[in-house]
Amino acid sequence: MNDLESGDGAPGEGREPAGGADVLDEAGIRTALAGSRLAREVHIFERVVSTNDQALALARSGAGEGNLVVADRQTGGRGRQGRPWHSAPGLGLWLSLVLRPALEARRSTLVSLAGALGIATTLRQGWGIRAGVKWPNDVVVDGRKICGLLSEGEFSGDSIRFLVLGIGLNALHGREDFPAELAGRATSVALESGRQVRRLELLADVVRAVEAKYFYLEARGFDGIRRELLLVSPLMGKVARVVTAAGELEGTVVDLDENGALVLRLGGGHLKSIVAGEVVRVT
Ligand code: BTN
After folding, report:
1. What pLDDT is recorded for position 21?
2. Which domain covers residue 274, as residue numbers?
3. Atom 14 in ligand 1: residue holding the nearest Cα
4. Residue 174: is it exposed, middle or buried by C-beta count within 10 angstroms (0-12/13-18/19+)?
5. Structurally, how many domains does the chain consist of?
6. Is residue 19 predicted with pLDDT exceeding 50?
7. Which pLDDT score is estimated for 64?
8. 139 and 204, same domain (yes or no)
9. Number of neighbouring beta carbons within 10 Å of residue 139
10. Residue 239 Cα, ligand 1 centroid: separation in angstroms?
């Protein structure tokens, strides 16, 4: 295992997860992911700044689809809109996949939506957690975030050169493991399932679930995924306030369009598709 950084004293450091040490060891990871098409090559780090940075560097140097980066801890994990991503050592799954989807660049959002759906589905079916997908890319349980996805990539005109899909899944956290600013807004697989979580098992479930939806998207298109997303969306039928680069909008959430944009019905009945934004209030 590699260590690309040292000595950062991140929150949660030194705490053993409830239920005893849960080791993400290299041999275990390789065995758990054997046969996975998205994890033909696995790059495992004890510590990195960000698994997305590692995966972006791999992709830029020509790595193909099927490269997975996993780290036990991140010292500079990042979320959407430049926010830091709390990556407590030993408690979560912090991973990034190199993808080369045959999709137009304007449809790249579909990849993170498909990935989020895969994760919500495996949490529901395999872990008994009532997980949903909050547009654009949060996996949530009763309003608390359990997993976030960050898609970054390089584009050439309307083609995708590559995407890196970063996944941060809170796995072993107890309530006290989240920093104060996340209290009441974050949760974990251990908290929601009540089970003793082994991250190796969870990692294999997550990668295989993302893989299933990703290849379904590639082979069959977005429509089936869209219908499943609407079924597990905590926003559907609700009034949402969305912050976009062009300002704030409020309306009733009625659909996702073929590019993964959120469709709002505004006052007056006009439908508006929002390609990028942040839902800040739901009533
Ligand atoms: C978000 O909800 O804002 C997205 C969070 C994505 C976090 C993951 S953790 C693994 C990967 N590496 C990063 O630096 N970020 C993503």
Report:
1. 75
2. 235-282
3. 77
4. middle
5. 2
6. no
7. 97
8. yes
9. 27
10. 27
